[in-house]
Amino acid sequence: MMEFISLLMPHLMLAPIMLPMLTAALMLLMREELQRVKLTLNILSTLIGLVIAVALLLWTDQAGAPVTMGVYQPGNWPAPFGISLALDRLSALMLVTTSIVALASIVFAAVRWHRAGVHFHPLFQFQLMGLAGAFLTADLFNLFVFFEITLAASYGLLLHGSGRARIQSGLHYIAINLAASSLFLIGVSMLYGITGTLNMADLASAIPHVDPADRGLLHAAAGILAMAFLIKAALWPVNFWLVPAYSAATAPVGALFALMTKLGVYTVLRLWTLMFSSQAGESALFGSNWLICGGLLTMAFAAVGMLGTQRLTNMAGYAAILSSGTLLAATGFGQNLLTAGLLYYLPSSTFAVAALFLLADLLDRWRNAGARTAPYEDDEAPFLNAELVPTTGLNLDEDEEVLIGRVIPAAAAFLGLAFLVCTLIIAGLPPLSGFVGKIAMLNAVLNPMGVGTSAGHQPGMLGWTMLALMIATGLVATISLVRVGMRHFWASHDRNTPQLRVAEGLPIAVLLGCCIALTVQAGPVLRYMQNAADALHAPGTYIHGVLTQAPVPNPVPVRAKEQP
Length: 564
Fold this sequence. Notes:
- This protein is mainly alpha-helical.
- It has a domain at 295-370 and 409-451 and 458-537.
- The protein is built from 20 helices and four strands.
- The chain has helices at 2-8, 15-28, 35-60, 89-109, 120-136, 140-158, 164-195, 200-206, 215-232, 242-248, 251-275, 288-307, 312-332, 336-367, 410-427, 433-446, 460-489, 502-520, 522-536, 540-547; strands spanning 70-72, 85-87, 372-373, 492-493.
- Strands 1-2 form a two-stranded antiparallel ribbon. It has a two-stranded antiparallel ribbon with strand order 3-4.
- Helix 6 (140-158) packs antiparallel against helix 7, helix 10 crosses helix 13 and helix 13 (312-332) runs antiparallel to helix 14.
């Protein structure tokens, strides 16, 4: 298997970008009436993309392999002059996470939502193309190009299904992202003016040698560029747009948008560890305290938001912000072990938030499907006595059917269990992957050099604050989600049995099953994340791999035989 994948490398790196692009182009040539054909193409393309992403991840994690990083020069020009694509463990992880969430979203949309508007399927594939390109590119300008492809597709996806709420929140979403794009261009222009390059590896090589007189301008450029990424990563206070936009989107689009904040986190993690590593001279770890403080404030904001809302889609939006804030704060510490913990937490939280968006659609549909809400005039349950023991002869409803001991419908049981699993993961409660990820990060904060080798080390004020906030936000998330769960599952009765199709339940089960798999395979997964974190904090391999990749020699023409 590995030999076959190695034969396809490095050209296989183009597939996550080219496959959705060609699929979207083909669907644009089809009439809008061919929805079933487009749906089939969309699911098939996304499934093939997942297989390719898993193959790339396996290739980067070969035991004992001399090279675990792939570099591809699409124009066959050497870096830093040509476009470069780079694949390492982090980008492979993001590709797999994206493909899993995308496949779950499109299968869920197949039941009803894909017919709610036009051009849903091409926009969906363009979104995947932009995400894959952003994860693979090794050039800042092309990162901007893929960012814009992703944003342009997200504008259409957010408005899919129309309606006043979607249009209003969509306009705000477009405005804030246009501002972020402007900051992106300004920051990139300033960096190019100072260093003369936009290749990420070449930038990392140039930053330690920047003239001291230009060092302040370099930091200003990096700060402006970081703001563009942090807006996408939903850092407080520039995250006011996220909850209204994500909650107004259709359920599969909201689930797909759970990846958008992780795109912002990825770019911050990639560029900060590359450009401002411990090897960056006077700019080493530039902005780390700002990143930590911003992430901690974002965590606090998200916790207050979760506590202040009872709408499930808003809850999912705040859960996405909480996850993003946790990841950003952990990134700012610049520690290998802590980065490994946040990399484990990243896919787990993404899957859980995406599943919660899908669950919110099913629960809202079930709750509003014909329910008479339970009357609240009587303080006592009609079938219990003062000791809260069932009263003989009163364990019947209006139809003379037994209340206590009645079998829960399978669909209702599935929704309840899925909501319980989401709650455990988002709140970071044992025994699932959210708890494992948080414990890994907390252990790294207390033992930055490893257990048994960090004697006498004090986490400091920021470390203790993060530890306290991770515990407190977990408690607040538990209270908020349990309260909403009681409202949806216990506070109303006389509802019809929820109508749940396999294509709606299967994506949720897959997303949560991935979280359970992360828990069961926590040891191997954490080893993979540790290797990825070590590579991020020692960027020499990345820099050397990109800058030394030689172009493929042109074929030598065969001389024509001399005529006699």
